Amino acid sequence: MIKEIKDGVLCFDGCSTLELAQKFGTPLYVMSETSILEKFDELRKCFLDKYPNTRVAYACKAFCSMAMIKLCEREGMCIDVVSGGELFTAISAGFPAERIEFNGNNKLYSELEMAIDYGIGRIIIDSPLELKMIEEICEKKNKKVKVLYRITPGIKADSHDYIVTGKKDSKFGFPIDEDVLYPEFERAIDSPYVEFMGLHFHIGSQILDNDPYLQAVEVMLSHIKDIREKLSYEVKEINLGGGFGAVYTDEEKKPYSYFIDPIMARIQNEYKENNLPMPSIVIEPGRSIVAEAGMSLYTVGNVKEIRGVRKYAAVDGGMPDNIRPALYQCAYDGMVANKADLPNKEKVTVCGKCCESGDILIRDCCVPENISRGDLFAVFSTGAYGYSMASNYNSNPIPAVVLVKQGISEIIVKRQSYDEIIERNLIPQMLK
Ligand SMILES: *Cc1c(COP(=O)(O)O)cnc(C)c1O
Question: What does the pLDDT average to over 115-141?
Fold first, then answer.
């Protein structure tokens, strides 16, 4: 078990949370390598090894650090980046450029130049402007890149509005308008600067039902058929995006096979009927790989009881290190890590230290009696979109990230110092 209780203390991947807090301070992000490796194993079993010609591109934005990228490299994964900064992080970690895929709805000219210079594996084109920019850069540099087209299949996955990306009214991808799409595909097929590999969709995040994927696959297959018939071109690759749900509180655990098997069955059937070889199939999971591998540790400070209303327990972090509850009203679970074997006796609302009423990590969390200053509070499943969305709001330093594995712990991102918070500040001449 990755989470277990020993002598009343919560342990994570063999490390006592109390010792981690003493050694590295709080607030602290802890990432379990064992948990990440279990996800990679699962992906190998139910996708990479089960179906030939498949790739997993970990969506770095869920948790982007050089150590995580190294882990992806060692485990044979590809990665998906969405910015020059992520691309730079990956290249700096020594990740092979040809295993990098580049997504994003407004890739900058400079980011595309950087990607083409490094020789990255795929660019997923999001707009007609992007093909123009890629062609211009490739012409200048005498290069050719492999591209896919991101379509928005016009289906609505059941998730928070901000993390739904597959409906027509979206800033992402090409809407299904034939008079825009087909001339665009034709240009890509004819262009000497790009190799048109295929189609991509990413319908949203934290999706717990396979039906929206199957609907999107239907839309995609019908376009692949049209490309075959209208443009006499056979696409070589299908990218199904990410979005597979993770377990935060009491969601039912959905294995990857729940999503992948029916999708693969549908695609295989389509290609078999048409007597055509299967294209490459790529998925881009982010959250589902790292969410459950993360735990955030905080020290409890002020405990405020408003009699007859609510009890607040304030911790030394909050929305700067985990914006998700404030941004999408996400629910988390947690526990008093140093009182892990005491029975829960009351409900408290665990809040942060920021000047925002929305700075609440867990509403009505069940805890033992007398939660008090100095207690260690652990929030579970914070490995995705926590550190990667961290901010310096209220000039709070960004916490350190520690990687743990079977009792061993090592820092992978240093805690930001106050000096680092102000290091880019200048006082101009006119104020001196
Ligand atoms: C964010 C994103 C992903 C990963 O989504 P998760 O919900 O973290 O799995 C994959 N592909 C694209 C294009 C994305 O933008």
Answer: 97
